[in-house]
Amino acid sequence: MAGVVAHRITNANLYLDGRDFFAQAEEVELGSVKAVMSDHQGLGMVGLIELPDGLDKMEGKIVWNSRYRDASVKMATPFKAIQLQCRSNVQVFNNGGLVDEIPLVTFMTIMPKEYALGSFKPREVTKFETPFSATFVRQVLNGEEVLLLDYMANIFKVNGEDQLARYRRNIGQS
């Protein structure tokens, strides 16, 4: 009988357009892939159900621990897409302790939605939040693609399986 295997992620590093922003971001929230659902009812059905209508917009945010010129220049305009990369270390534990460490890499194309000017108080650290929307996300765990979502190209793959192949074919997009 196999024992419990626990994965832990306790830190990450952020890259924008390939540039390393080591220790400059305090937090990054990458967002969620979320279905848009709508109610469905019909004659003979005793209940109301929800069915997926597509995918909701993806939003996230970066919390900066100060103002950095290189980050500010990238985040000041909503009209230019930015390549975001979040690299993290997944620790793998079993009953023998730490047995492995594997990479989790998330690639995103984002567009900033706001440029915070800051809130300043005496003797308090000022943080700057940059909310963003994403049009592309690809997540790779230990070298294997787990998720690929490209809103602009109607591509959505989970574990390599194309979730929209028939949809694209049916609308004449394949």
Counted beta strands:
12
- Kindly state the percentage of residues in helix: under 10%
Class in CATH? Mainly Beta
Predict the CATH topology.
Pnp Oxidase, Chain A
Q: pLDDT average, as an integer?
A: 94
Tell me the β content: over 45%
Structural class: mainly beta
Biggest beta sheet summary: 10 strands, antiparallel
Separation, N- and C-terminal Cα atoms? 46 Å
**Reported CATH architecture:** Roll
Question: Poorly predicted ranges (pLDDT <50, ≥5 residues)?
Answer: none
Question: How many DSSP helices?
Answer: 2
What is the helix/strand order? EEEEEEHEEEEEEH
Main features:
174 residues; mainly beta; Pnp Oxidase, Chain A; 2 helices; globular
Q: What is the topological layout?
A:
Elements: E1 6-16, E2 19-20, E3 25-29, E4 35-40, E5 49-55, E6 58-64, H1 69-75, E7 82-94, E8 97-112, E9 128-141, E10 144-150, E11 155-158, E12 161-162, H2 165-170
Tell me what the structure shows.
With 174 residues, this protein is mainly beta. It has one domain (6-34, 56-170): Pnp Oxidase, Chain A (Roll). The chain contains two helices and twelve strands; from the N terminus they run E-E-E-E-E-E-H-E-E-E-E-E-E-H. The chain has helices spanning 69-75, 165-170, and strands spanning 6-16, 19-20, 25-29, 35-40, 49-55, 58-64, 82-94, 97-112, 128-141, 144-150, 155-158, 161-162.
